C-alpha cells in the first residue's frame, strides 16, 4: 500500500479539527479530507487523499493535490510553491480525476473528468442514489454516524453519515442523506472513502476546474473512460495528438503530456468506481 503523505497547506487557512466539534446549527465553509483506498488489479491496495469543500448551498469534491495547487494560486503564493504543487499533481499516479460539484446547478451535480487529451463534464441529479436505512450506529472521528445502503453505477454502497453535521453532501457522488457522509465502501471491498479531518476553511471552491471542456452525457463518458483506461497510450486517437511532451524531474522521474494534458499510466491498473 502506498503511504499517504498528507501535506496540509497553511496558506490562507484556518482550521477546526474533529477534536473540537463544530456547532450542529449550521455549516458554512468547511472542508472534509478523506483517505480513498482502492484494491488494484494486482491484488494490493493503493491510497490517495481527497477533499470535500462545503459551502452553504453547494460542495466540491476533488483530489487533494489539485486542491493544494488551486489554493496556492488563489492565495498568490510564491511561484516556487505553485510549481511544487503542480508537479505533485502531475506525478500522482493515484490522482483522483473526478471533480464533483454537488448541487451545482441547483438540484444537479456536475462532474469534471479527463480522457487524455480532453477534459469532459456532464450533469446528473444531485441525489442519484435511493438510500435504505439500517438501525446501526458507529463513531467516526468523534461524530455519531448512522448507516445507509444504496445502489449506484453497478455497485452496492454502504455509507456512514452524521446528522451532527447537517448537510446532504459526501465524498464523490455519495450524497443526498440528512447528514455529511464520513465513510463509504462498496460491497466487494474494492473502493473505500474514510474521513480523517473535518474543519473550518476560508478557501474558495473552484467549481470549474478546467478552462476548456467537452460536454457529454454520463453514459457516454463512463463507457469511453473505462475503455480508455484499459490501454491509455494505445487508445488515444492519433489524429487528436497535436503535441506530445515529456516533463523530466531532478530525481529521474518523468510525466508524459498530450496536448498539455497529463497521461497517467497507472502502473497498478485502473479499477473504475462506476461499471455502468
From TrEMBL:
InterPro entries: GLPGLI (IPR005901). It comes from the Bacteria. Pfam families: Porph_ging. This is GLPGLI family protein. It comes from Segatella copri.
Amino acid at each position: 500500500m502506498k503511504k499517504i503523505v498528507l501535506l496540509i497547506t497553511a496558506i490562507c487557512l484556518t482550521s477546526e479539527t474533529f477534536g473540537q466539534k463544530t456547532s450542529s446549527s449550521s455549516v458554512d465553509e468547511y472542508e472534509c479530507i478523506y483517505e480513498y483506498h482502492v484494491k488494484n488489479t494486482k491484488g494490493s491496495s493503493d491510497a490517495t487523499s481527497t477533499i470535500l469543500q462545503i459551502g452553504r448551498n453547494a460542495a466540491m469534491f476533488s483530489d487533494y493535490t489539485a486542491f493544494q495547487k488551486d489554493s496556492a494560486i488563489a492565495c498568490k503564493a510564491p511561484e516556487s510553491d505553485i510549481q511544487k504543487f503542480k508537479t505533485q499533481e502531475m506525478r500522482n499516479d493515484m490522482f483522483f480525476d473526478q471533480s464533483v460539484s454537488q448541487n451545482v446547478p441547483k438540484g444537479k451535480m456536475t462532474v469534471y473528468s479527463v480522457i487524455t487529451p480532453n477534459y469532459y463534464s456532464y450533469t446528473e441529479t444531485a441525489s442519484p442514489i435511493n438510500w435504505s436505512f439500517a438501525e446501526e450506529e458507529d463513531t467516526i472521528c468523534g461524530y455519531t454516524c448512522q448507516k445507509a445502503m444504496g445502489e449506484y453505477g453497478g455497485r452496492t454502497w454502504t455509507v456512514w453519515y452524521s446528522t451532527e453535521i447537517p448537510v446532504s453532501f459526501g465524498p464523490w457522488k455519495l450524497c443526498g442523506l440528512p447528514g455529511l457522509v464520513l465513510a463509504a465502501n462498496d460491497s466487494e471491498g474494492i473502493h473505500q472513502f474514510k474521513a480523517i479531518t473535518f474543519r473550518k476553511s476560508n478557501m474558495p471552491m473552484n467549481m470549474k476546474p478546467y478552462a476548456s471542456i467537452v460536454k457529454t452525457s454520463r453514459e457516454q463518458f463512463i463507457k469511453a473512460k473505462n475503455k480508455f483506461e484499459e490501454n491509455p497510450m494505445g487508445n488515444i486517437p492519433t489524429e487528436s495528438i497535436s503535441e506530445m511532451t515529456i516533463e523530466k524531474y531532478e530525481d529521474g522521474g518523468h510525466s508524459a503530456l498530450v496536448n498539455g494534458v497529463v497521461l497517467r499510466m497507472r502502473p497498478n491498473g485502473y479499477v473504475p468506481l462506476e461499471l455502468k
